[in-house]
Amino acid sequence: MAAKSASAKVTPEGQLRALIAKFDARNQQLIRSVRAALRKRLPTVNELAYDYGSSLVISYTPTEHGMEGIVSTAARADGVSLYFNQAKKLPDNKKLLKGKAGQVRFIRVESASQLKHPDVEALIAAAVEHSTAPVATKGKGSLIIRPTAASKRAGRKPAK
User: Fold this and answer.
1) Pick from 98, 23, 65, 13: nearest CA to 90
2) In the 8-state DSSP scheme, what is residue 66?
3) What is the pTM assigned to this prediction?
């Protein structure tokens, strides 16, 4: 069997698997199941993954810009949260959204089945409706691994 070349290109899926592998087994499973549920719910949008060292953020966006994301997941050692980027515009009669940020609020996710709850589904549907960019009705979104500002700085040459 031939050895793989060290220069073989790592796929975005492979990169994401490596980022998820940094978490404990319970969170790995939760991240994968929440991701699968969101891919099923939002199949035409792109996933933009950002590694912030202590957290992994995946933005689900109709464009290639995280700021235009409909929802995002943030995985940390203490669990996974689902963030809504246009939270102020969303009907949250049940007061599910947490946080005091101006635009962005979140829900703590204990299992992917939570995303199927009618109240959470209504928030996701409203987030799609309030998206700043149109969501395609056909096609399949891509996974894009984005460098964070810290990793960009780390790769820079020092100023002379």
Assistant:
1) 98
2) G
3) 0.86
Label residue 115 left, alpha or beta by phi (over 0 means left) and psi (-120 to 50 means alpha): alpha
Say which CATH topology domain 12-136 has. Answer: Aspartate Aminotransferase, domain 1 (3.90.1150)
DSSP string covering 94-138 = T---B---SS-EEEEES-GGGGGSHHHHHHHHHHHHT-SSPPPSS
Does the CA dihedral 25-42-106-103 come out positive or negative?
Answer: positive
> Can you tell me the distance from the alpha carbon of 125 to that of 48, in angstroms, rounded to the nearest whole number?
20
Closest Cα to residue 69, out of 80, 81, 84?
Answer: 84
Q: Which two tokens stand for residue 82?
A: 């689902």
Question: Domain boundaries in the chain?
Answer: 12-136
**Residues 71, 85 contacting (CB under 8 angstroms):** yes
CA distance 117 to 113: 7
pLDDT tens digits for the chain (160 residues)? 555 555 567 899 999 999 999 999 999 999 999 999 999 999 999 999 999 999 999 999 999 998 899 999 999 999 999 999 888 889 898 999 999 877 899 999 999 999 999 999 999 999 999 998 999 999 999 999 998 755 444 454 555 4
